[in-house]
Amino acid sequence: MKLGIVGLPNVGKSTLFNAITNAGAESANYPFCTIDPNVGVVAVPDERLDKLSEMYHPKKTTPAVVEFVDIAGLVKGASRGEGLGNKFLANIRETSAIVHVVRCFDDDNVIHVEGSTDPIRDIDIIELELVMADVEMVDRRIDKAQKAAKGDKKFLREVEVFTALRAWLNDGSPARTYGCDEDDRALIATSDLLTLKPVIYAANLDEEGFRQYESCPYYQKVAERARTEGAQVIPVCAKLEAEIAELPEEEKAMFLEDLGVEESGLDRLIKASYTLLGLISYLTSGEDECRAWTITRGTRAPQAAGKIHTDFERGFIRAEVIAYEDLMRVGTMAAAREQGLIRSEGKEYVVKDGDIILFRFNV
């Protein structure tokens, strides 16, 4: 999973990226300090994997990972190549979802590229640039379909669908909020539009605002915006996240408790990403390795096996499955087998979150 962190210059984008990835991207009080996308890979926190490792003492423990890409700050005109626009748009196209960092605090010492704090205006600036870039792509798709329709009338439907979508985009609305049936939605999905990508708004507050974020007017505006378009929103304080990242592991929990929160911004961001993208994790275990694997909810056993190796999917015979909770309740695989808790599942089995699986295959 690859998440693109975007936002106007100086909204806390790189500070947040540094905190959650410890990748050390340059952070400075001026636009475009992130010239090239910085990439950081972070482990997905999973207590189930930790417990399995305690049980097996494997040679290696491999968590699922999320790749974060800190993308250069956007300005008005990016869709026309202003600032670092072309590079920005190309980098977004490669991501699974967008983490849109929105400034929700006032600070005279931190320059705002638009001169004042207004989270909805800032969201609109970026969204409009993405919409305008999508209009250009839709225009090209319509032109291509019109030419193809001269030889094959089935492309006329494609012209109709994308012409209607263009009118929606021209009103300034993102493609993800366009209402249509499943067939048209599937057709639109083949176009790789920027505004089809799911969005998580990271409302970046100062420390005072973060402690009482639900009563912060800036946060409330972003939350309302997220509700209207089916997006996710999480409150973060990039400055505090940076402090948390510097602490030894054993001190992080105490720091979070003092703040009155149970999870770091990174943990909340990853959970929101999984929910937004419909992702789950299944587990494999043994003395050599305990590992978490990320799949889309609804994935069947052979395709889940294919995440490990294509041979596993091609030669799939069956999956031996036990729910994580059942294994923890009885304590060992041997006890689970004695009690009939390990099931043999075939090709139609839909993998569930937390399943511990051993795949049987033959190639």
- Largest sheet report: 6 strands, mixed
Shape: flat
Number of contiguous helices: 15
Instruction: Name the quaternary structure.
Output: single chain
Query: What are the secondary-structure elements, in order, as H or E?
Result: EHEHEEHEHHHEHHEHHHEEHHEHHEE
Q: Strands of the largest sheet, in order across it?
A: 2-4-1-5-6-7
Beta-strand share of residues: 15-25%
Description of the structure:
The protein contains 15 helices and twelve strands. About 2% of the residues have low confidence. The protein is flat, with a radius of gyration of 23 Å. A hairpin with a 4-residue loop joins β8 and β9. The strands form three sheets. A six-stranded mixed β-sheet has the order 2-4-1-5-6-7, with helices on both faces. The two termini are 29 Å apart. Helices cover 43% and strands 19% of the residues. By secondary structure, the chain is an alpha/beta fold.
Quick overview:
This protein has 363 residues and is of the alpha/beta class. The protein has helices at residues 13-21, 47-56, 85-93, 119-149, 155-170, 182-189, 207-211, 217-229, 238-245, 249-259, 265-277, 301-306, 310-314, 324-330, 333-338; strands at 2-6, 38-43, 60-62, 65-70, 97-103, 199-204, 232-236, 279-284, 289-296, 316-323, 343-345, 355-361. It is flat, with a radius of gyration of 23 Å.
